[in-house]
Every structure is written in C-alpha cells, then in structure tokens.
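1st attempt posting a full record on here, be nice pls
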Amino acid sequence: MHNFDLVSEDNQIVAEVKSHKLTKAGNIPSGKISDTYHACFMLEKVNAKKKLLILTDCKFYEIFKRYSEGKISKEIEIVLLPNGNEAKKLSDVRTTTMQSALEKTNRPDFDVFWSRLTSWLSHKQRILNWTAKSGYVGEDFEAVYAGGKYVVVYPKSALRVQRVPKNDFKTVYAKWDEYAAGLIPRFYFVKGPIVCSRFSKYIISIIHQYLNSKKVER
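the predicted structure (as tokens):
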C-alpha cells in the first residue's frame, strides 16, 4: 500500500510532492535523488490519467529534470511549484482545486489555436501586460499579425518593434494550463528545461487577453 500526497476526488489525478533541496554546500544529495526516483516508481504503478511529480525547490527541480531525462515514464509530468516560505502545508492544498486547475481543458491543438489567434490579431490590439502571479502589472503594449510566422509587438519603451516567433507561442501554449494555475513560474519559459524564449512576457499577455476575449464573447 502507498499513500500518495495528492489525489483528485475521481482518482484520475495523482501527485507526489517532494521538497528536497541541495546540500548546504550545493552538492547533489544522492539519497534525495533516490527517494524522488522511488516516488516516480510509485506513480508509474498507479492507474490514473494524470501523474504529477511536484518539486518545490528550483535547483533540485533543475537537477532532477536533467538526471531523470529518459529514465522515468513519459506519463509522469514533473512540475515546479516553488514554496519559498515553507509555510504552506500539504493539508492546505485543496485537491478539488487542483483537479479543476490541472485537468486539461478542451483547448484546440496549437495549429487551430494559432489560426484563431492570428485572425484576432489581424487588427492591431492593445494588450494589457499580465502575469499569473501578479495580475495586471507593468507597461501595456500593442500587437498585430501581419502574415508569416511572427506576431509583431510594439512595446512603448522599446526603441524598435519585436517580432515574436510562432514557435515561441507554441512553447508557452503547451504549458498554458499549468502556468495559468500558478503551478509553474514565468522563468520556466525563459530559462527552464524547455526551449527558452525571451518573448514570454509578450506571449503570456497576448494569450491571456485572447482567451479572456473569447470568454466574453461566449
């Protein structure tokens, strides 16, 4: 028998949470690595649609992502959920909230999304700068799609326009539900384990405003 840390009410989302850190000297803790592998082993055995390994320390997350590449089941999604103040206990986490936040929405695949997004941006839009952590903050900008595989962004403070590639949008869109739910930070897209993007600030705000505009229309 094994008690998982978090389980949704319908048993379709199961998570193990590890708060391991590197040693004080910055060395890799082999025992903690082994313990995390064991958590992955248990997740591999369980019958669930979504299996999450939630790590709360950024450095340990980066190390384990690198160590575990190709060594654990592809069904397991490793998620960074920073817990800097160490004040929140697992008992504070509402599994029903986790379920609604993490269950995949019926979003279209990226090519369909890109077609709809660029259609929405066929006329220049004023975009409100937004982050999942802080809400509306910082300087707004304008964006427009003028053809090709780029969205053109007009920042107020920049000396020239920015051309944001389609592939960068794809990178953020693939993890949008996790980001919007606060499960991964913005720097995940800047210097995380996936392809880095220096345009994540613009992409996040554009996607957020587009999705919210669709909600208003409905």
